[in-house]
Amino acid sequence: MIVCIAEKPSVARDIARIIGANSSHEGYMEGNGFQVTWTFGHLCTLKEPHDYTPMWRSWSLSSLPMIPERFGIKLIDDAGIKKQFAIIEGLMQKAERIVNCGDAGQEGELIQRWVMQKAGAKCPVSRLWISSMTDEAIREGFQNLKDQADYQPLYLAGLSRAIGDWLLGMNCTRLYTLRYGQNRQVLSIGRVQTPTLALIVNRQKEIDNFKPEPYWVLATVYRDTTFTATKGKFTKKEEGEEAFKTIEGKPFTVTKIEKKEGKEQPPQLYDLTSLQVDCNRKFGFSAEMTLNLIQSLYEKKYTTYPRVDTQYLSDDIYPKCPQTLNGLYQTKFAGVPVYAEFIKPIGGKALKKTKRVFDTSKVTDHHAIIPTGVIPQNLSDLEQKVFDLVARRFIGVFLPDCKFSTTTVLGEVTSTPSPTSNTRETSIEFKVTGKEILDPGWRVVREKTQKQEEDDAHQSSGDDDEKKQDDEERTLPTFVKGESGDHKPTLTEKMTTPPPYYNEASLLRAMETAGKFVEDETLRAAMKENGIGRPSSRASIIETLFKRHYIRRERKRLVATPTGIELIDLIREELLKSCELTGIWEKKLRDIEHQQYDAQQFINELKQQVSEIIRDVMQDPTNRRITITPDEQQKKGKKKPKGGDTQ
User: Of the residues 305, 312, 339, 501, which is catalytic?
Assistant: First the structure.
């Protein structure tokens, strides 16, 4: 009998239906030579400190560092999990072959490998590796099962991540709690969590310490068009007033008109982070909410595997794209064919194929998030919003570039001195730029939802500091070089502004690029390897910071609490809070996955680093402590976690 093990009961039912295992039993399905069973996500976890030695049960500085000679796994202490595991174990002990049908990613590999290890499975193991849950994808996957050995590097990367998080989290959480927590509050430290908190705290300090300074902007209105002085800002009011006097009452003359035509390529397809960013900006969804919604769409077969960090498709997907577009062509919401008018112009023609979309070298395990072509039914309002973004982004990459014309108009006001004056002739230059869409191209898929997106963003945001995307292009009147006339100059006082608070969208981008602000798509993609956390884990890291009461939401802003700020201030070890160093760890984990770095070396380095952190903190001669208000203590309680913190 061949035993297939999936990550969820719903996934197992789909697989069982396709392969003919239609007889239901407690904890599994059977038929056609197959038994299909399931986990509930993680059934096993790394052992806790006290599982290695009773000495590590109590929290004490003398027991640190806790470094087991060999790491082990155990079942999670839950009656339902133990019951299901007993069924899995019985099936695996008798199996002639096992098919690992876990989620096709690092975490899915780890979940199922641990279960097989715990169950003592001895038979050969195959791997089902698919990027969508459509019936066709499942059938193709079973026709092309892989050898589990092919995914050993993926497992080693996941195992190294779990052990690394255990070493740092368990040891440093106990260390900081005992050393600085006054024995009244657990101070949670994590390999990804702490640098992420440091990002928020450091930005908040920039804002708190910011001293606004005044500056003055000289502008003038000519033919109902506002021109701004090219000289820039005046830092002294007197200088601005002098310039104002120079041009007041003098004619404005157009000196140069420059027109340039340009093209704008469609945005790249979605990876998980860019989808989370857009959903936060447009709809106010949290990163976790977006992940849950796109995961639901994946499990319902409407979109492909979501936990990805690439925005490319492999070349073998290209022949399947017409079929996917056909499914979108037939898709209706509330009886309206929402995508038909966009797809009609490209239907029946060879689809555009560019390296910006199709590049096998940029795809490892999975490609970008796209629709599957299965016509969606009975979506919730929130699921429909997410599906709509994915669908429009997919359609857009096959549409023509947007063509536009940029017009720059320069003008000047010249002050001619009187013959008796000692002053020289002075000119002040002004400039205005306008953009006119000549052919919207791919933008048609965005224009239809623009008002809805703006309304949703406005309702969900309420954040005065967040700049709204304004896609309405400004078209200038027709100017003629040499024309001249009256104008109305203005001198406006403004104040310099601090950097904005992080929201979930900007924090996700900062995590993706190890804290560096990168707007350029190509450069950002190059920095992904050194980002902090995996795309699939960033949402849970942000939620962990909320649960620990280290950050809170103020409308869309993410604000560090006093405890969060104090914790970062306490940590002097750059290793614990540096985004760049954590990004280097992430790069090593990716290299393990790609067989370019040794897993044991990664663990050994981390053991040494943890030992050095403990030594340095133990030698701290100061009497630093976290201050706890009664309200905070009541919120958190005095209960310590079982072993520490590994997130």
Answer: 305
